[in-house]
Every structure is written in C-alpha cells, then in structure tokens.
Design goal:
Elements (H helix, E strand, L loop, with lengths): L3 E9 L11 H15 L5 E3 L4 E4 L9 H11 L5 E4 L2 H4 L3 H13 L3 E4 L9 H34 L12 E4 L2 E4 L1 H17 L2 H10 L24 H9 L6 E4 L2 E4 L8 H13 L21 E3 L5 E8 L2 E8 L11 H5 L3 E3 H19 L10 H13 L5 H9 L2 E7 L1 E7 L1 H8 L12 E8 L8 E3 L9 H18 L4 H8 L3 H8 L6 H9 L8 H6 L6 H10 L1
Parallel strand pairs: 1-2, 1-3, 1-4, 4-5, 10-14
Antiparallel strand pairs: 6-7, 8-9, 11-12, 12-13, 14-15, 15-16, 16-17
Length: 555
C-alpha cells in the first residue's frame, strides 16, 4: 500500500490566546491528528513537522508556516495537506485557485477534517470556490457594516472614539467637559472674536502659554505627544469643529450631540460666518499687496533647476507663472539652448491642480496606510477635514495643502511629490509619530501642450484620456477563463481552446481577481497612467483587495 505523507497546517487570525498552554492551534492540530489516524487503513502517515501561523490573516499567502509547507510540497515531501477548515488554508478565492494549481503540479492535494471536499473533482472545486467567494464577501460586508454602524451612531449624537478633543474626556459613548482644558478652548474662540485672525490667535495663545491636549499615543522618537504650542492648523481645527457647539460631525453631515457644549452655538455660528466672509479678503497676499506664491522654493525641474515665481502684465491684467530659473533673462552669459528647454507654467492652474492632487492622494491613502493604527473615528474626522478643505476659505485651504509639499519635481510626463511629515501632521491635527512617512511620497501623470511658452496643464488622470481597450479586453478574457475554471475545465484545456500557452492563461486570469473599484477606474479610464496590461503582466497583484489598493494608490 502506498504511503500518503500528511502534513497538518494550522492558522489563527489574531494573537489573542496564543500565550495559553492549550490554544486554538493546538485544538486544530489535535483534530487533524485524530482524522489522520482514522485514515490509517488508507496508508495515511503523519509527518512530524509543524506548520503553524499564529496571528496572521488568511487574506494573504505571505505566511511563514504556509510558505515552508508549500516549499516541502514542491520538493515532493508532502502528499496531503490536512486542515481543520478550508479557511485555515486561505480565505481568498484567487489564492485558492493558485494553491490548487500548485498542488496539482506536485501531485498533491488537501483535505478539511470538518468539511467533506475532494479537490480532485470539478464539483469539489466548484463547491470550494463558492464557499471561498462567501468568505471574501464576508470580509467586505463586515467593513461596510462597521461604517454603517458608525454613521448610525453619530446620527444619534454618540461619540465613536478616536482622538479625544481638547476640552473633553470620554464618558461611555459620549463626552464630558474637562474644565481646565475647556478654558483654553473658550480663550481661543474669544481671541478670534477679538482679532478676527487665526495667525493672531496662534501668536497670542503661544504667548499666553496655552498648550494642545496631551495624547496617550507617543510621538516620534518615543516622546510623549501633545501638550505642544498651538500651530495654525490646530487653531483652525478647533474653531471649525462643531463638537464644541454640542454637535457631532460625520463626513459632510452635522448632528446634535449628546455631550454638553463648551461654546454657545450662537457664538460658534458667528465664528463660522466670519471665517466664510473673510475668504479671499487679502489672504494669500504679501505686504505690498501682490499675490504670494505658495510653491516658491518647492518646485524643481528634471535638471534640478528651481522654478521661480514671476509675472507678466498684458492689457492691464497680471499673469503669474513658475519659470525654470535658467529661463529668466538677465545673465548675458546664459546658455540659450538650455534656457529654451526650461519650463514656464501658469501659476494659478498649477497651484489648483497640485492642491487637488495632494488632497486626492491623502484621501486614497487615509483608509489604507496614511496613519499608523488609527481609530475609525480618527479616520472619519480626517476624511471630513479633507472633504471640507476649501469649503470655508478656498485660498486659505489651498495654501495649507500646498504648504505640505516639500519638494515637487516636474519631469516630462509626471510630477514627483514629497509631503513634509511634520506639516501634514500639524494640518491634520495628529502627532507626526502617527504618520506613515512611506505614504507621503507619490507621482502623478503630467500632460502639457507646449513648452517654453504658456502651457496647458492636465495633472493627474484627466478625463480626456481614452480608456485602455487592451487592458479592458484582457479583464474580460480573465473573467471568461475564470468562469471556465468554475465549470470544471483545466488550465491546459483552456489554453488549447484559446490557442495560447498555459503560462499566458495563468498570467491573464489574475486580472479576474482585481478589486471592483480598480476595475471601475480602468473602465472609466481613470486608473494611473502606468497601470497597463503589460505592467500587470509583469507585476502580478496580490489577491487581497486592500493590498491591491495600496499598490495602485502608490503608482
């Protein structure tokens, strides 16, 4: 009788309870050992090696224990993988298809001791596909359910956690006033009503020794966060936060809260009205009355040359530009051939589009990895701040966004942007230690019509781009191949019917597992310019949709 060498694989998603003497991994292994013993008459033999992954999600195959097991399968050391349930092996439909293909190549299979499936038959594979589809669907629905719960709770005026605002402390699902801190909040509002200037409030508050709220989260370098001097962003956030008027904000909606107000709603309304009325009144202008250039000193071209603000007057109208320094007339020995290759970009269009690109990037990275271990309420607060940028004061908000850029490099076809961590943190009112610096650098497509004269700019994924028909056809083919797999066909049979190599079928079918929102971007032609069929063929995407979104957001 041929021996069937069996390896047991166990996994637990969370680390909770792993320190116990007998935990979930032990219970799974015990059940698998008993099942293998019951199949002794079939020649099943238990291998002594342990393949365990504790505290790791089933949404990825990048698990140390699983990778070691798969290497042993490839080497012909394992005939049968035994798991307690199939979702211990993987919770991803795409990963399951890859695992079955890999096991088939090694003439191996797997079995679940609590679920009767035979992956050697098409019906068994179809049933597993259906179950794994529901497992993946369950993850997405759980996330939606949490978002809906937060929205419903805030509609009732409940506080849903996150950074505790200055002046309050948690009291169950609401807040109660901390009088010492509340005096600081009232002082800030009084100072604004007196001076009508956020900068003046900031300066007076710092001279008075007022400080921000201490945070339980550590800052960079392990230092305590909070209790710092007020920055302009801190003051602006407090003055515009409806929580101080006894209300709760959720995205663009504001509801009556169940917590007491620190500021009289009428006073809060007066402050908001004045902030709105002062939009554009002398903001963004120097002492001489000329418009400042918020990107001055922050823009460079592909040669490393700085782009300098300049202007021209035509028929009584002033036009402002950012111009490569080598193009500025005044040096009689200047190399005219180099000057002709410089950039001359209209300031207003460039500033508006770069500010929009930065906001879009921060929104896209916020739910993924912009912050380190954020709460749902903190994500909601910052999402509201990003959405509201410009709603109160367009000029002021745009300058605050552009102040985060340090630096931006313009090259033919794209603009590379690096955001300053400290500035972004101050603007979003979080500790710099809570920011993920890797999420603060990105590049965006940059299209232009002329060089050396006034340029028509299209920054980002302009709607004038045509959709990538090749990529769309490949996605449609991938869905067709995947449907064939679910109906029981093998990759070899599909390759033969399509007159293609099996390798090409495996390469294309990965596109069937792209996240729906990424497919929607591709259908609309709004995907990053480098996200093409060729690039995806050279860079297979992980099955986890969140991981895919992180990769696409970084392109």
């Amino acid at each position: 009788m041929k021996k069937i060498r069996c390896a047991i694989y166990t996994r637990k998603s969370s680390e909770e309870g792993l320190e116990q003497e007998f935990n979930s991994l032990h219970a799974q292994r015990e059940a698998c050992v008993s099942y293998i013993a019951s199949q002794k008459h079939e020649g099943w033999v238990l291998l002594p090696d342990h393949y365990d992954d504790g505290g790791i999600s089933g949404g990825t195959l990048e698990r140390a224990g699983l990778q070691r097991l798969l290497r042993n399968v490839d080497e012909g050391l394992v005939d049968q993988i035994v798991v307690y349930k199939i979702d211990r092996l993987t919770r991803s439909l795409a990963d399951f298809a890859k695992l079955v293909e890999r096991l088939d190549a090694a003439d191996a299979s797997f079995v679940s001791v609590t679920q009767s499936f035979n992956t050697a038959t098409s019906m068994g594979r179809l049933t597993l596909n259906v179950l794994l589809s529901f497992a993946q669907f369950e993850r997405e629905v759980t996330a939606e359910r949490i978002r809906d719960k937060i929205a419903a709770s805030k509609k009732k005026g409940l506080w849903m956690g996150g950074n505790v605002p200055l002046g309050y402390e948690p009291d169950g699902r609401t807040l109660k006033i901390v009088e010492d801190e509340a005096r600081t909040v009232r002082t800030l509002f009084d100072l604004y009503l007196e001076h009508r200037s956020i900068n003046a409030v900031k300066q007076r508050a710092n001279r008075m020794g007022l400080r921000t709220k201490a945070s339980a989260r550590g800052g960079s370098g392990g230092q305590a966060a909070g209790e710092a001097a007020f920055e302009r962003g801190h003051v602006y956030y407090i003055l515009t936060n409806p929580i101080y008027a006894g209300r709760v904000r959720h995205r663009t909606q504001v509801y009556e809260g169940q917590h007491p107000a620190i500021i009289d709603p009428a006073v809060f309304g007066d402050v908001q009205q004045h902030l709105k009325e002062t939009a554009g009144r002398g903001r963004g202008r120097s002492a001489s009355g000329s418009k400042t250039s918020p990107l001055a000193g922050r823009l460079f071209d592909e040669t490393g040359d700085r782009l300098t603000p300049t202007h021209a007057n035509k028929k009584g109208r002033r036009y402002q530009y950012y111009v490569s320094n080598r193009m500025i007339v005044g040096d009689g020995n200047a190399d005219k051939s180099k000057a002709a290759s410089g950039w001359r970009l209209p300031a207003k269009s460039l500033e508006q589009q770069l500010a929009s690109a930065v906001l879009t990037h921060l929104r896209n990275r916020l739910p993924v990895d912009l912050l380190i271990d954020p709460s749902a309420d903190e994500i909601g607060r910052i999402h509201d701040l990003l959405d509201d940028a410009g709603a109160v004061n367009v000029t002021r908000s745009q300058e605050a966004v552009l102040a985060c850029i340090q630096p931006a490099t313009i090259t033919p076809g794209k603009i590379e942007i690096a955001l300053d961590c400290e500035t972004v943190a101050a603007w979003l009112c979080v500790s710099s230690g809570a920011m993920n610096s890797d999420a603060l650098s990105f590049s965006i497509p940059f299209q232009f019509r002329k060089r050396g004269v006034e340029t028509k700019l299209i920054i980002g994924n302009g709607h004038s781009r045509a959709v990538d028909e090749v990529l769309i056809r490949n996605i449609a083919k991938a869905q067709q191949y995947y449907d064939a797999i679910k109906q029981g066909q093998t990759f070899e049979e599909i390759a033969a019917s399509e007159n293609l190599s099996k390798r090409r079928i495996l390469q294309v079918i990965d596109l069937a597992f792209l996240a729906p929102d990424i497919v929607k971007l591709i259908m609309q032609g709004d995907q990053p310019i480098c996200l093409t069929a060729k690039w995806l063929g050279q860079n297979p995407q992980p099955s986890d949709w969140q991981a895919q979104r992180r990769i696409v957001a970084a392109l």
